[in-house]
Design brief:
Blueprint: E1 2-4, H1 5-18, H2 24-36, E2 48-50, H3 51-65, H4 70-74, E3 76-79, E4 82-85, H5 97-109, E5 115-119, H6 125-133, E6 138-143, H7 146-156, E7 162-165, E8 179-184, H8 199-204, H9 218-230, E9 231-240, H10 248-254, E10 259-266, E11 272-279
Parallel strand pairs: 5-6, 5-8, 6-7, 8-9
Antiparallel strand pairs: 1-2, 3-4, 9-11, 10-11
Helix pairs in contact: 1-2, 1-3, 2-3, 5-6
Length: 281
């Protein structure tokens, strides 16, 4: 015995919506595709969900309703053109960060054998995307958290990326003054914003990857200083920030006196999303 696909999905969507999941239709379909071992776009081929798969599906839906991240349940996340293994202990890459990665890729693509550094690499998402789309780039990445570094090792294996474990504040002394592009998705949530953070992130992402001092910009200040030492004159830096930091994040770079062409960029929803700057010559 089994149930029709449409019935299984409708029941799951209702449960996820009642639990406050932001995208119940998408998540239900993704989980059903996952238990069938197919892509979500191929779900139309499934007419009936067998009893065995139905039990697995219901168990995953229950975990998602408890606000466990979808990517933890499927074990993977997609970022631009690459797939990443993710799970407990590593920050789940967000779609909006693809814009920052795209900026870095665009700049690296305009250079011959560019040297690119990804600070706070987490799962390795940005570094892997750059290595994938700019095969001539010399890509380096660093992650402080031991568990996240383990995930990055898995994701960056075979890519040629130079991955290290350590603090971005003193990473890559051997590259000082030689880097063309520095990119970073640092922690940027103010400590006081704890209760406003989505349950999926607050309860499952490493806090080291989320929170950064009273104003959320402690890591950004470290980045502005470290990037000024890593980059060659005229090199560029890009960093993601919260949508409420569209003025304060660029100011972090402006007050140092090291940077020119300081710009803030919006995401596809029109919200301030990342800051870029060029090291003065």
């Amino acid at each position: 015995m089994g149930v029709r696909r449409s019935v299984a999905l409708a029941t799951a969507v209702e449960r996820l919506r009642d639990a406050g999941v932001a995208s119940p239709e998408h998540d239900a379909a993704q989980l059903l595709a996952h238990v069938h071992g197919i892509e979500r776009r191929d779900l139309f081929r499934v007419e009936t969900v067998t009893e065995e798969l139905g039990v697995r599906f219901e168990a995953l839906v229950a975990r998602r309703a408890a606000r466990e991240p979808l990517q933890h349940l499927t074990g993977s996340a997609f970022f631009r053109h690459v797939e990443l293994a993710v799970g407990p202990g590593v920050f789940t890459p967000r779609p909006e960060t693809e814009l920052l990665a795209g900026w870095a890729i665009e700049h690296a693509s305009s250079l011959t054998r560019p040297v690119v550094v990804d600070l706070c690499t987490g799962s390795g998402a940005i570094a892997k995307a750059i290595a994938d789309e700019v095969p001539g780039a010399d890509v380096h990445a660093v992650e402080l958290d031991v568990d996240a570094h383990t995930w990055a090792e898995r994701n960056l294996a075979g890519t040629g990326v130079d991955l290290r474990q350590g603090d971005m504040a003193d990473a890559f002394d051997d590259l000082l003054g030689t880097v063309d592009v520095v990119v970073c998705n640092p922690p940027y949530i103010p400590l006081e914003a704890w209760e406003s953070v989505a349950v999926e992130a607050r309860d499952h992402d490493p806090h080291l990857a989320l929170f950064s001092g009273d104003d959320g910009l402690d890591a950004m200040r470290v980045l502005a200083q470290r990037a000024s030492r890593l980059l060659k004159p005229g090199g560029v830096v890009g960093a993601e920030h919260a949508d409420l930091q569209g003025a304060s994040a660029p100011e972090v770079f402006a007050v140092t006196g090291h940077w020119v062409e300081i710009l803030d960029h919006r995401d596809l929803a029109g919200r301030p999303r990342f800051t870029t700057a060029r090291l003065a010559r």
